Amino acid sequence: MLIIKLDAIPSTNSYLRMLSSEKRLKDYTVVQTTNQTEGRGQRGTSWYSEPGKNLALSVFKDVSGISLKQSFLISIVTSLAVLRCLKTFGIPKLKIKWPNDILAENKKICGILIENVIQQHQYKGSIIGIGLNVNQITFNNLPQASSLKSITGRNFNFDELTNGILKELKKGFKNLEKGKIDDLKLDYEEHLFRINKPSTFKDAEGNMFSGYIKNVSDSGALQVLLEDGIVRAFDLKALTLMY
Ligand code: BTN
Predict the structure, then answer these.
(1) Signal peptide: which range, if any (predicted)?
(2) How far apart are CA 153 and CA 119, in angstroms?
(3) Does ipTM exceed 0.95?
(4) Helix ranges restricted to H, 9-88
(5) Amino acid 124: pLDDT
(6) Which residues form ligand 1's pocket by a CB distance below 6 Å?
(7) Residue of 33, 57, 113 to mutate, ligand 1, most atoms within 8 A of C-beta
(8) What is the value of pTM for the model shown?
(9) How far is CA 195 from CA 18, 108, 182, 212, in A?
């Protein structure tokens, strides 16, 4: 396993993508920094992090064996890997907010951005980007954000966290390769934030509505029971879960 540690880098995902365009990468090639200056988030947002305080990690994984229809399983494996690792560090009240934010005490401590790459015109790979708030304690204008230190009052070692996440990621992909899909999905749904609770959503046009999260399909669509009794599936672009 190769871990490339960089003092500062615009985006670990972009760096790993650049490497993947130059040569065929081995599974679990990792780029890590604690000073990511132009981090990218989901839906074209940016991911800001105080220099030296947080972990930005990107991991390459060949996913040729996973069909496009089941590509959300990569998200499930990743969010569970972060969650299980953080559990071993004693972080309480961990949840996964659809599709793959990690919350502790109802606040976001980790964001995940998974991007696809094609290697050598043939091998399908995923760049799994993980941004974990570790030792930062002020989050101006982001009342819903938190960090490991905000929750526990202590500082964490970045390398220990990286190793812990990689260990769980490997275990998760092994389970996926063994076909333990139902177990993974069950574990994901057990940790899903607001499952079966009255929730408020915003659609792509900005309209708010209420419903109950029932489950998530293999492709990642959120199944919501609406007030008229109908269950509708929403994909990532169509919906934001507010609370
Ligand atoms: C989100 O919640 O919007 C996803 C944030 C993902 C941030 C991580 S940090 C490591 C990797 N490199 C990036 O540029 N983004 C991801």
Answers:
(1) none
(2) 43
(3) yes
(4) 12-22, 72-88
(5) 86
(6) 11-13, 36, 39-42, 45, 47, 56-58, 101, 111-113, 129-131
(7) 113
(8) 0.95
(9) 38, 17, 17, 7
Domains and CATH numbers, the chain: 3-190 (3.30.930.10), 198-241 (2.30.30.100)
Tens-place pLDDT, residues 97-139:
999 999 999 999 999 999 998 866 666 899 999 999 999 999 9
**Ligand 1 center to 77 CA (angstroms):** 16
State both tokens at 66. Answer: 């996973």
CA of 131 to the centre of ligand 1 (A): 5
Which of the listed residues 19, 35, 36 should we mutate to test ligand 1's pocket, taking the one with most ligand atoms within 8 A of CB? 36
SS3 213: strand
CA distances 203 to 34, 78, 189, Å, are 34, 26, 22
Q: Between β-strands 231-234 and 239-241, what pairing exists: parallel, antiparallel or unpaired? A: unpaired
For ligand 1, atom 16, the nearest C-alpha belongs to: 129
Ligand 1: which residue has its CA nearest to atom 2?
Answer: 111
76, amino acid identity: I
Instruction: For residue range 51-101, list pLDDT tens digits in order.
Output: 999 999 999 999 998 888 888 999 999 999 999 999 999 999 999 999 999
